[in-house]
Design a protein that fits this description.
By secondary structure, the protein is of the alpha/beta class. It is built from five helices and five strands. It has one domain: 3-Layer(aba) Sandwich (Rossmann fold), CATH 3.40.50. Helix 1 links the parallel strand 2 and strand 3.
Length: 131
C-alpha cells in the first residue's frame, strides 16, 4: 500500500494530523536518500522543503516548530540560514548533517547524523508497532 505524499515549500503551510518532516537545504545526495525512503514508506506524510536559495526565515522557524522531524544539511545552507542554525539545533526533534569538525554544533545538539539510514530503521520500527 502506498501512502499519500504532500510536498510543501515556502510560503505555503499545511496544518493537519499527518506527520510532517522538514528538510532544510538538502543536498542532491540527501534528496536521493529521502526519495528512496519515501519509495518504501506506506504512510501518509507531509514533506516540507526549505531549499538553499530560500530566504523566508519566518516560514522556516514556524514550520520547524510544527513538524515531527527536522533534518538540516548544514554544509548546504546559505549564510542567512546558517545564522539561525543554533536556534534550530536546540530543539530535540532537529537532526543535522555536517562535515564541519571545527564549529562546535555538538555543544548545542547531540543529534548529528551522517546519512538518513536511521530513518529507514525508524520507519520499520513504527510499522512493527502498528502491526
Amino acid at each position: 500500500m502506498t501512502g499519500k505524499l504532500t510536498i510543501i515549500t515556502p510560503p505555503d503551510k499545511l496544518f493537519n494530523a499527518i506527520p510532517g518532516y522538514l528538510f532544510v537545504s538538502p543536498s542532491t545526495n540527501v534528496k536521493l536518500q529521502v526519495q528512496e525512503i519515501l519509495a518504501h514508506c506506506g504512510d501518509d506524510l507531509t514533506i516540507f522543503m526549505y531549499e538553499k536559495e530560500e530566504t523566508n526565515i519566518d516560514w522556516l522557524l514556524s514550520v520547524a516548530h510544527t513538524t515531527e522531524l527536522v533534518v538540516i544539511d548544514v554544509d548546504n545552507c546559505s549564510p542567512l540560514t546558517k545564522s539561525f542554525i543554533s536556534f534550530l539545533l536546540v530543539m530535540p526533534h532537529v537532526h543535522y548533517m555536517t562535515s564541519d569538525e571545527i564549529t562546535p554544533y555538538h555543544l548545542l545538539s547531540r543529534n548529528r547524523i551522517y546519512d538518513l539510514d536511521w530513518m529507514v530503521y525508524r520507519e520499520d520500527e513504527e510499522d512493527e508497532m502498528d502491526d
